[in-house]
Amino acid sequence: LINFQIIGTARSAATQSQLLVSATWCRRLSRLLTAQPTTQTDASQSSRDHRRHRYEHRQQPRRPVVAMAVLLGGAAGSAVARADDGDKNSQADEDELLRFCRLGDANKVQQLILRHRMVRRNQLGSRDSDGDPERRLANARHRLGWTALAAAVVNGHEEVARLLLSMGADPNASDTFSGAFSVAARLGANSAEVSSLRSAEFSERLNHGATFVGCTPLHYAALIDSVAMVQLLLEAKADPTIRNADGHRPSVYAPEASQVRRLLQSAELEADRRARRQFPLEQRLRQSLVGQEAAIRCVAAAVRRKENGWGDADHPLVFLFLGSSGVGKTELAKQVSLYLNRDSQQAQQQQQTQSQRQSPLQKQQKSGNNSYGFVRLDMSEYAEKHEAAKLIGAPPGYVGYESGGQLTQALQRCPSAIVLLDEVDKAHPDVLSTLLQLFDEGRLTDGQGRTVSCKDAVFIMTSNLASDQIAEYGQRLRQAEAAGGAGRSGGAGSRELQVEAEVSRDFKDTVVRPILKRHFRRDEFLGRINEIVYFLPFNSAELAQLVNRQLNKWAAVAKDRHGIDLVWSGEAVEALSDGYDYHYGARSIKYEVDRQVVSQLALADEFGLLSSGDRVELIVSDSAKQRKVDLKICRGQPGSGDYSTVIVREKLAADSAGASSAAASE
């Protein structure tokens, strides 16, 4: 809301006239939008009320009006709305640049650049804190969210776009315009005013009610189907893999079978390959998994064949993960899903701002097991014959026919999803028959007769079959590895040990395969599995990594919640590693840290032995049966008079003995 007195503070008469026109236009538009349709019966009454309203309006002093140019930040409005800014000339130059980019006047843009450069140098000289004034001007952004480069691209002004890129405009700068209704609600304006301003100062060809959050200039170049503009942006290092808030890359907006789409898809493939070369899949997986080098190499090789177009396009990729519990089977499946659907994560993060306007039901529908293209099905829930219908949906005439199947619905939403079939050995044989068709033909027909294609999906089955045999075999491999490592030295020896830790072909054929065949009873089911991946128990070095990860997690918790520093030595790590049980994998390490470290921390906190600023050290005490980890609480600075140490186990034992003797004396 502004007053005509504020309009009088404009810099020039031309600006005052533009503001007055905008104010008059807004007043008329507001009356038009708020007017209600009248019938013929009350037409005369409405006419009399209108004449009386006009007479009363003339007698009253002029009220404040909404000036669209001032409220929404047009070329004239920005000068008034930001009149208190420290750099008015720079803001005026940015407003003029946005207008010239919309109109496509390259000469005016070049003159504006030269004038801006001279003015900045004369006014500030070496005191310019903006660094490069030309780059700052080239990256000018409208108050509603779009950049000058986007305005030039969406209107097809190639010469202006080339000039902005030469000045240092960011080709990957994204739009923040979230739709006319959303912007109007945020600014307290009318949605019609926002749409009109978007049409006048950006483009008339777009749907201004839709959201354009995350759209880069390359998205707009694809929308206008301009080959020259796409080539210009790609030469300027524009990223064709960036997705907007809807999760779409620029190639999605190009017409099908067009040269622009082919050009963008080729650039996407090259960008993906370059990213994979710089950060291979094996390196990504090692960040989340401990050990299991053979499994990581096997899965990464199969995924690489699929991504680079060297896989079977008619059949989905099928894995079977074998091993004991807690060795990383499910975690590896999740990491592969995050890698293959890594762009969906970025799109979901961009949609978090929009989720505030959704109902709780919509949020619940978007959450669940299909996050980032990951579908997890616990096959123990399909142990009965009739529960096989839950995968594909009930047949016609049965309860739940219209709801569809859990698997078919998930594949319809994301045909390239990672489907984790956890504990597949617990499923009914009829469920395996359904999976047999799925793995063989790459398609599935639901209860309603709709065919779902899933040739691009990846199916990962986990099982505990032969887990004891694999664990014992792995333990023998680890013992041989440790014995061989004692007599070897150097880097070549470590590589030989890695090869020795792999499962032999003889063990697979004579031990594991008969167990699988006895359970599944079908050679055709096992024959459709691309890779059977074996997960072995951890060695001593990998156990140390697991212990350190758990201790680092609890050290962060102790520092953030209680202000306590938790430190430990290698001896404490070895003592905690003694609690490893190869039948339970990494979970046994987690439980051991909880028992020996976290429980003592909680007990010391309960008895008031801990306070903020203390330093807790993990020390090892040897007992007759096993090594135990104790907590040593250090308070104060070493060497000072107020320095003190307390061992939690001894302190609590002494207090308990003192309490018992006092009770006995009483």
From TrEMBL:
GO terms for biological process: cellular response to heat. InterPro entries: AAA+_ATPase, Ankyrin_rpt, Ankyrin_rpt-contain_sf, ATPase_AAA_core, Clp_ATPase_C, ClpA_ClpB, P-loop_NTPase. It comes from the Eukaryota. Residues 36-46 have a biased composition (Polar residues). Residues 315-530 form the AAA+ ATPase domain. SMART domains: AAA, ANK, ClpB_D2-small. Residues 36-60, 344-371 are annotated as: Disordered. Residues 538-629 form the Clp ATPase C-terminal domain. Residues 344-365 have a biased composition (Low complexity). One of its GO terms (cellular component) is mitochondrion. Keywords: ANK repeat, ATP-binding, Nucleotide-binding. GO terms for molecular function: ATP binding; ATP hydrolysis activity. ANK repeats lie at residues 144-176, 213-245. The keyword Cytoplasm does not apply. This is ANK_REP_REGION domain-containing protein. It comes from Macrostomum lignano.
